[in-house]
Each structure stands twice: as C-alpha cells, then as structure tokens.
C-alpha cells in the first residue's frame, strides 16, 4: 500500500486541513504552561532533595557553660563539660563524626537575631554537630547520660523538621506533576477535538479515499504528520516564551539556593561552551534548560499520537 | 424471473467472483426501509438476495427507485456490511471479522462509479483520475500515459487541469468513470453512470464497459435507461421494490 514516501495530492493537503494558525497558538500556550509546570517540578525536586538530605542524620547538641567542669564519673579525670560531652559522643557506635562549631560559626548563626555587637557579653552555649551513620538514630539513653555528665545539655534532632519539610517538598512535587498531567490532558483533548474538526471538514475526501482502498494507516499518518508539524511549531514558540519568565523566576529564587548553582547533567558536558554560557546567562538551572528542550518534542509526540489515534478511531466506524 | 435449477445453480455459484446468499442489508436505525447516505439522500434496504456474478460477466442491475440498487452496489463495493446472509467477493468472505487490511486491499480491486460522482473537489481532473494509480505506486510516466490516454478517449483532455466544480455534470460523470476503470479493476460497479450523458456518449461508455468485461472484469451497471438495456442486451438482475429477493431476468 502507498506509504506516503513521495508527495501525493490526495485532497488531504495540510494547508487547509485544519485551522493551523489557531492550533499553533493553542499549542504554544500549552507548551508555555507545560514549561512552567516542568520548571516547578524540577524546582520542587531540588527542594525535596535538599530538604531531605541536607539535614539528614544530623543531631545538634547544645552544651551550656561549656568551660565549667563536668560532673565526675567513675575513674574519670576532671574534664570540662564540652570535652566530656565530645568524648562521650565520639564513643557512641552509630555516630559518624562529631564537630564542635567554632565561635565564628556560632556568631554567624546567631547574627540575624542578636546582631554583631554585644554577642561576646552573652553566655553562649557550645554547639556540637553530630553526624549519625546512614540509617541510624541517636540512642534513646544518650540524652540521660549527657545530662548526668553535663546537666542542662540539650539534644535537638533535626529529623522531625526534615520530615515535615520533606513532606512539603513531596507535596510540591505532586502538585507540579499534576499540573504537567493536566496540561498533557488538555493538550490531548484539544488535539483530539481539532482532529475531529479536520475530519469533519474533509469527511467526503476521507470517505472517497477509504472507498478506493486507502488504508487507515495512510489517512491517520497524513493527519498525524500535519498535527506533529503544528505541534512542534507551537511547542517551540511556547517554550521560547517561557524562557524569560523562568529566567526571571530563577534569578528571584537564586537567594533560596545555598550553593547558587547545581551541577549540570551529563548531557551538558557535550554541549559547546557557547551554549552553556547562554544557559548560564539566561539564569536557567541546567536541569530546567534540559527539560525545556524536551517540551517541544513532548508536545509534538502528543499531537502526533493523539491525531493518529483519533483518526483511527473515527475510521473504525467505516467497514 | 426464473431461478436456475439447483444443480446448475450450485456449479455456477462456485465460479462466481461475487457470490451472495440470502443477503440482507438494513440500516441500524432503519424502520421504514430507507435511510440517508452521507449526503442525505435516501438509501433503501435489501433483503433475501441471492446472486452469483462470474468473471467477465456484464450485468444490468434494474429496478424502480427505492428497490435497493444503490444499497446492493454499496454492499458489493464493501462500503457497508450486510446485516445478514453471506457475501463472498473475489474469494474473500466479507464479514465483520474480515481484517481491515484485507478489506482495503479488496476495495483496491473494485472500481465504483457513484451516482453523485464523488470527485475530490480540491484535485484537478488529471489528479482525480490518477489517484488510484498513485496509491498503487505506479511510476509517474506510467500514470501520465494511462491517464492521458483515458482522458483523450473520454473527451476530457482539454479539461485535465480543471477542478470538478468547473465541469458539466456529464464531464464530471466521465471523470468518475475514468477514475473507476483506470486500474482495470476485477469488478466494476456503476450506479446510473449514463444519466448525465448524451446518447452517443452513453453508448460509447457501455461499449467500453463491455470491452472491459470481455477482458475479464465483472461489470454491474445499475440503470433506469431501458433503451440502453434494450440496445445492449445482457444478463440482468431485477430488484423489486415489492419483493425482497432479486432475480435474473
């Protein structure tokens, strides 16, 4: 059967098959929304990752009056409270590392609340950052032991907050995924509706071709190819329209990013430096820039597949 | 109308390119035997039809308006499915179970001239006539040679670049006939193919169809033109508006 390898005037010419310009505009709007949803998805993923792993397995121990002498235990030599706590924490089996925050780090942490001046006059506690081994928690008896050595020592587990933030980030990811799904669904509905309009406009021609023995696949592919062309055009326009918006959002939200930039995906190592500079200049996170490249392809595939399927379903009514 | 004796009937049936047994067609929503086709015209149902058409046979399809001639041609052209009964065309049993690919391949071997011509309005005369050959992947020189020869024979050479809307009814009908016969189909089905033609042109077209039949094409022509039927005697199937079954005259 004829497969469309060469151009044939068959009455299904694409130029006036469907209202092309209107469809490109709709596709562009959908691609624009999909780009925003995709950026939201990546952003939520980054936040989820950062909030999930950033404070995972870290326990903060506050030791008031660190220089004072610790309560004496059996066979122990006299130690300051902070040294005694540090020594004990290092002996716990599931602790990966113990780090005493320096006075400058402490000042930096408290600066937003206490300001720069006057901090030295306050009796600040020593703060120890305890990194637990992966998958392990602080033993339940540790707080009591620490309290016996250095009364008033407080253990603050970050895990509770981490879990709340992780749930929040997960919810954001779901919302972004739902938005992407909704955009795709609307896209499918629009393409399906427009394809049916096109079939209505070309009904007689389709019936004539069907009666001549033209296979469903040929007719479906003619509609599918035309829809794919319009979709990719709309997809590109919509994605390009989204770049300035995402760039602006990226610059605004950069203050939330601790490291400022994230590592580019492996595919970016193959890109010419000019392109990489362009992405950087646009203020786009590499993963979002990578996702933006996929949007026109995704829109094209949805357009092509939906049109093909719609035509095939319509033709099923004929013998 | 006489039915052949059983023995001869059976042996003849086995040779048929088209075999119909107790064939019936009625639109799903048909309550009064008539429904509209895709342009809104009324199409009549048929019931209990037996038919066998051999290779190279020329058959007149006769009957009053509403007798079901168009319905039968649509059935034989695999444009619709029988409500009941059995239909074999070119060795393929036609049913809802027959694959769409097989049905499409079958349609390519059947040329149909519709009463309403069904020309593609955005294509020129030449493009309309050439279309079946293009779908058969013939080479451009071959397509051009065949189409030009046919157009010249049918007196359409001067109109090759015209669109159907620029042609008279008779010319449009000849384009439809040319498109149906250009592939030299195994079966040619024509629904009132001469009603827009002058007498000499109609006679010329009947002769062409009989020549096609002589070359092996089974030709079934539905007509109201009694003069032509009388002038070119051949087997005839008469569909009665009162009777449900058709019979050979």
Describe the structure.
- The complex is a heterodimer of chains A (319) and B (249).
- By secondary structure, chain A is of the alpha+beta class.
- Chain A has two domains: 14-53 and 163-315, no CATH class; 56-157, 2-Layer Sandwich (Alpha-Beta Plaits), CATH 3.30.70.
- Chain A is built from nine helices and four strands; from the N terminus they run H-E-H-E-H-E-H-E-H-H-H-H-H.
- A four-stranded antiparallel β-sheet of chain A has the order 2-3-1-4.
- Residues 1-6 of chain A have low confidence and may be disordered.
- Chain B is an alpha/beta fold and 249 residues long.
- Chain B is 35% helix and 23% strand.
- Chain B has a six-stranded mixed β-sheet with strand order 8-9-10-5-11-12, sandwiched between helices.
- The termini of chain B are close together.
- At the A-B interface, helix 6 of A face helix 3 and helix 4 of B.
């Amino acid at each position: 059967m004829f497969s469309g390898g060469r151009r044939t005037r068959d009455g299904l010419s694409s130029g006036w098959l469907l209202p092309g310009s209107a469809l490109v505009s709709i596709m562009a709007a959908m691609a624009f929304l999909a780009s925003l949803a995709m950026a939201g998805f990546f952003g939520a993923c980054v936040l989820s990752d950062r909030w999930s792993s950033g404070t995972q397995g870290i326990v903060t121990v506050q030791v008031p009056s660190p220089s004072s002498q610790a309560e004496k235990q059996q066979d122990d030599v006299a130690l300051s409270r902070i040294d005694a706590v540090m020594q004990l924490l290092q002996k716990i089996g599931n602790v990966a590392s113990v780090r005493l925050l320096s006075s400058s780090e402490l000042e930096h942490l408290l600066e937003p609340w206490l300001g720069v001046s006057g901090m030295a006059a306050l009796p600040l506690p020593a703060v120890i950052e305890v990194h637990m081994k992966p998958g392990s928690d602080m033993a339940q008896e540790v707080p009591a032991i620490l309290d016996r050595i250095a009364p008033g020592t407080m253990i603050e587990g970050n895990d509770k907050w981490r879990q709340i933030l992780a749930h929040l980030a997960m919810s954001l990811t779901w919302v972004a995924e739902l938005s992407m799904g909704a955009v795709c669904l609307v896209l499918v509905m629009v393409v399906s509706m427009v394809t049916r309009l096109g079939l209505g406009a070309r009904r007689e021609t389709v019936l004539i071709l069907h009666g001549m023995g033209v296979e469903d696949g040929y007719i479906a592919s003619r509609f599918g190819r035309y829809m794919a062309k319009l979709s990719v055009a709309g997809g590109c326009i919509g994605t390009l329209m989204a770049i300035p918006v995402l760039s602006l959002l990226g610059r605004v939200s950069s203050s939330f990013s601790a490291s400022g930039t994230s590592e580019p995906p492996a595919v970016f190592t193959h890109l010419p430096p000019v392109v990489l500079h362009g992405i950087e200049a646009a203020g786009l996170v590499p993963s979002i820039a990578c996702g933006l490249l996929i949007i026109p392809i995704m829109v094209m595939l949805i357009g092509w597949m939906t049109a093909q399927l719609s035509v095939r379903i319509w033709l099923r009514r004929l013998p | 109308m006489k039915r052949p004796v059983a023995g001869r009937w059976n042996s003849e049936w086995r040779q048929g390119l088209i075999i119909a047994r107790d064939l019936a067609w009625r639109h799903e929503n048909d309550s009064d035997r008539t429904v509209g086709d895709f342009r809104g015209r009324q199409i009549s149902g048929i019931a209990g039809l037996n038919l066998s058409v051999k290779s190279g046979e020329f058959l007149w399809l006769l009957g009053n308006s509403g007798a079901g001639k168009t319905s039968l041609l649509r059935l034989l052209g695999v444009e619709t499915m029988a409500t009941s009964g059995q239909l074999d065309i070119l060795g393929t049993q036609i049913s809802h179970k027959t694959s769409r690919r097989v049905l499409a391949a079958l349609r390519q071997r059947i040329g149909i001239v519709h009463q309403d011509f069904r020309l593609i309005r955005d294509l020129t005369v030449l493009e309309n006539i050439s279309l079946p050959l293009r779908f058969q992947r013939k080479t451009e020189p071959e397509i051009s040679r065949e189409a030009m020869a046919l157009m010249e024979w049918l007196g359409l050479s001067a109109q090759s670049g015209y669109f159907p809307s620029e042609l008279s009814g008779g010319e449009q009908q000849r384009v439809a006939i040319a498109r149906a016969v250009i592939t030299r189909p195994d079966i040619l089905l024509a629904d009132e193919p001469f009603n827009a033609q002058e007498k000499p042109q109609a006679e010329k077209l009947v002769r062409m169809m009989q020549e096609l039949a002589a070359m092996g094409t089974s030709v079934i022509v539905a007509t109201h033109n009694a003069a032509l039927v009388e002038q070119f005697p051949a087997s005839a199937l008469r569909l009665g508006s009162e009777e449900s079954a058709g019979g050979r005259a």
